């Protein structure tokens, strides 16, 4: 079975880079229309939300190994709770009573989902009760980190007036470099139960993950659809289309 979590995070970061090209086409259009001044592309401050993104994606991927996909997907809804809480604490935003009520209902739903998962066990993953609890905690921790990322991104978008596509694209570039240069080599040499060129095995064998994707067309198709979903948000689709039309016209 495909039990690789780190390559998924790398793939996610890699395909977010298309936003950088889309942002370039939009900036060109804005300069032509003189609607806004050019923005400096190099923004090293975006390394902070990039690290949050990689951490959250990795934790969620590891948690998925121990819990059912349905439980994992429902637990991801907790990001609404954490983002709302952080927006009150750090962005000084005031939530209305019905918004607090909605967040409390999310807490109740998460408690029921987590309790049901622990008590019933996970036959689909073969995880023990302790591993199921660990998986739930990892997914919740991932949503906390992702909520922090969203608060940071909103702060940068408002205070620095950075274009959303530039932020997403640079995070993709930074994330890809960090994964390829640091994370994947490190987890390869860390001892683990995955067979590799290391005598003690590897915690994460990314080479094996690439071979598995190449040898299984179903897995490759699903990975392709996953990447397509990353690069096909409504805002980005319109930007990519505009960029393609601009390139064709020139």
The biggest beta sheet reads: none
Ends apart, CA distance between termini: 47 Å
Which H/E pattern describes the elements?
A: HHHHHHHHHHH
Radius of gyration: 20 Å
Q: What's the total count of β strands?
A: 0
Strand content: under 5%
**Which structural category do the helix and sheet elements fall into?**
mainly alpha
**Helical residues, percent:** over 70%
**Shape designation:** globular
Number of helices: 11
- Stretches where pLDDT is under 50 for at least 5 consecutive residues are 27-33, 234-250
Mean pLDDT across the residues is 77
Attribute tags:
mainly alpha, 74% helix, single chain, 11 helices, disordered C terminus, 250 residues
